[in-house]
Amino acid sequence: MKEIVVLSGKGGTGKTSIVASFASLAQSKVLADCDVDAADLHLLLKPDVNEEKEFWSGQVAFIDEEKCTECGLCQELCRFEAIYFGGGAHFKNWLSQIEEIYGKENIEIEEIDATGFKCFEESQEKLYRIWVKENAKKSIIK
Questions:
Q1: Residue 120: which pLDDT band, with cuts at 50, 70 and 90?
Q2: Domain boundaries in the chain?
Q3: What is the predicted pLDDT for the residue at 97?
Q4: What is the Cα 131 distance to its own chain's centre?
């Protein structure tokens, strides 16, 4: 048996499309879509599901505001390009995914001062913080 794993911390890179392409070529296969935010492989392949379980990672990334100097270095150094503070197309795509998971009524967007963030001062992009209500329930898409 051969095992192929496709992973990246960056969304929108085509991981699901690549896996679906490989899977369509394989005669006998076992697939596990372990994407915790958007497990969408079933939408492309329409598989016979033998087992399905709900998953909660228990780990949520956050910025420690007491330690953060707002220099933008974390965004520059993230190898997955998963940290993005701007208001462009990437932000809108990410926001729509968060709204789909938690519901639009549970999301608040706050524009914050970008002074000191070199990348935002140079590009003159706006900087936003997205708040999710504490008791918001996640919608699990099955």
A1: low
A2: 1-53, 73-132
A3: 79
A4: 15
Q: How confident is the model at residue 142 (pLDDT cuts 50, 70, 90)?
A: very low
Higher-pLDDT residue of 141, 77: 77
Best mean pLDDT range from 20-24, 64-68, 84-88, 92-96? 20-24
Residue listed under structure tokens 């911390």: 9
Q: What is the DSSP secondary-structure string of 19-87?
A: HHHHHHH-SS-------SS---HHHHH----S--------------TTT----SHHHHH-TT-------
Q: Determine contact, residues 86/126, Cβ cutoff 8 Å.
A: yes
Cα separation of 141 and 61, whole Å? 22
Four-residue CA torsion sign, 41, 38, 84, 103: positive
As a whole number of angstroms, the distance between CA 112 and CA 115 comes to 9
b/e code 59-91 from CB counts within 10 Å (16+ = b): eeeeeeeeeeebebeebeeeeeeeebbbbeeeb
For residue 11 the two structure tokens come to: 């969304």
Where is 92: in which H helix or E strand?
A: helix 89-102
